[in-house]
Amino acid sequence: MKQKPKLRILKLESCGGCIQKLTSNPSLLEMMNKLEFTESSEGEPADYLFVEGFALSAEQQKTLADAINNAKEVVLFGSCSIQPSVIISEPSIKIKTASDFKDILNKLCGCPPTYDEINELVSHLTLGKSLGRINTPVCDDCAKSEIKCLLLKGVDCLGPKTKGKCKTLCMKIGKACTSCRTNIEEEK
Amino acid sequence: MSAEKYPNIKISVDISAPDIIIKERTHLFEREILGKDTDKVREIVSRIDCFLSAANVIAFEIAIEDAYGIIPSKQTTLIRELILKIEIIYSHLNHLYKRIIPRMHGFHNYFDFVKKHEKEYQKNNEYLLRLEKVLIILSKRYPHPINTIVGGHLRIIDEDEKKEVIGTLKELIPHIVKNIDFLTKHQKSAFEIIDKHSSLWDLDKTPLISDKLKIDDEEPIAAKESYASFDIDSSAFVGAMSRLNNNKKLLSFTAEKLSKKYNLKFPLTNIYLTPVCMAIEAVHFAERFIEEIQGFHFENETRPIFEMKEGTGSACVESAKGTIYHYYEIDKMGKISKTKIILPIEENKRFLKKAVTHLPFDPDKKTRKQIMEEIDFLMEMFYI
Which of A9, A97, B178, B273 makes a 20 to 30 Å CA pair with B227? Predict the structure, then answer.
């Protein structure tokens, strides 16, 4: 029997919401048919490495570097692994992301990503494809949903500079975008 | 012990002298909050821990209201209490279904458990997904809720949503009752390690938002004052077990029946009773939630108008893992100039340390792997 590709999940500094979304995913069994999930396997090689969060301590940085070295492909799993400023933006706090160690193609934004987005990621990976970049801002989603622009109402909304396809959860109830899906332009 | 599994905890397993080091992760968030506008802080605190996301947001909002002298409406407080109840049920069941029950079945990796116990996993996950939907109905986004805000809430719950959430909880209760049966059958022998417990308290209800704190059988005290002088070396244990101990006379119908059926002798001090306490508490809050929402008619409200000003505010709320305390000083520009956040992990730290150092390891009789598994299980009791 052909061995399934091995997926290692690495939790660093984060709220844990993205892994929670992965383990609660209604399609978990289907995903497990395609991939061999492991919770932790320090030093062991993996085909895919999902990194949730960012590294703060030297120990975390070493764990992250080792995990990256032992993985064929790395996925930034959730917004704070792509852009830690979603949680921590204080410049005096020294942070390293997986992108500091390697150029990474697969970046799944979302705080947390939706079940559909996670399923799409796994489908892409198992087909040997990379996730496409989201190039449209939240404003496009608001326009499609016919939500009146909060900026025009004088509200400080970060929609124009934030990756879209967010289903406008916040704006639907009149709350401004706080850019939880990371910046379209810069990623750190 | 794996650093990646518990990113904020490091255990050194020298069998002759086991010890535990807990990194102060809260300080990271306190540093981040300093100098920020108050409206930015809710997004930061909601990301401290996804299972305490609503609790931290609500504690922040109440603290800011305290600083600005805003008194939230009865409806706002009820919506917050409802969100907190569901977050507690959801977090407890996540912990039980993904960490405790798999371990009791002999699995240390959740995914191995899923493979071998597909039907049980599917049933449990179905309830978790339905609870997540309830959380989204109430808080509009979860984790990182957006419905409650400083001074009020953005959206009320309509009649159809009310029916849906009540339906979900009514179906959930018998499922948790079955879980309790399993948990008690897999109960480990007593390890009496908790000698002081505290929770928010009221004479005739089991509040999740309050300024009264009960420590053991002492007279209730002002919660905010008590947390303002918090001393880690004399902290009391917080969380499901402590809340049950304090609220033993106020449990819901089924929760009380269950505590009698399983012969719980209050005050509970055995740390291995944590899973049973979590399950009984989930039943209790599900029943109380139904009572509270059924009897309430939600109406659209206007939020109070308030000005950003200088002030000091604090708040205490109950979360799945225990009591949370938030304190903020706001300068005249509306920015945070001082903050203190106390989380359950800090309050329970001395008990975790005591448990790890007092666990009878019997190194002559057990392998290193067995000892590691025992510590791993013990740590799950602390719901880190």
Answer: B273
Cβ distance of B28 and A88 shorter than 8 Å: yes
Phi first, then psi, for residue B11 (nearest 5°) are -115, 130
Do the beta carbons of residue B342 and residue B230 sit within 8 Å?
A: yes
Q: Which member of A13, A40, A111 has the closest CB to residue B144?
A: A111
pLDDT digits (tens, 9 = 90+) for B168-189: 999 999 999 999 999 999 999 8
- Comparing CA positions, the residue from A55, A86, A88, A49 lying closest to residue A67 is A49
Is A180 in contact with B144 (Cβ distance < 8 A)?
yes
Structure tokens at A184: 């379209």
Residue with tokens 């009146």: A148
Give me the pLDDT at residue A186, please. 59
Torsion angle in degrees (nearest 10) through CA of A11, A13, A15, A18: -40
3-state secondary structure of B243: helix
Report the C-alpha gap between B50 and B143 in whole angstroms. Answer: 6
Q: Is the pLDDT of residue A142 over 90?
A: yes
Q: Which of B3, B47, B129 sits opposite A15 (nearest CB)?
A: B47
Helix (H) or strand (E) holding B75: helix B74-95
Structure tokens at B368: 């290193």
Contact between A32 and B114 using a beta-carbon 8 Å cutoff: yes
The contacts of residue B370 (CB under 8 Å, 6+ apart) are none
ipTM of the complex as predicted? 0.95
Please give, one letter per residue, the 3-state secondary structure of B325-366. Answer: EEEEEECCCCEEEEEEEECHHHHCHHHHHHHHHHCCCCCCCC
Q: Which of A89, A53, A50 is nearest to B43 (CA)?
A: A89
Supply angle C-alpha B227, B230, B234, rounded to 5: 130
**Could you tell me the two tokens for B106?**
């002999």
Task: Report how far residue B151's alpha carbon sits from residue A169's, in angstroms, rounded to the nearest whole number.
Answer: 21
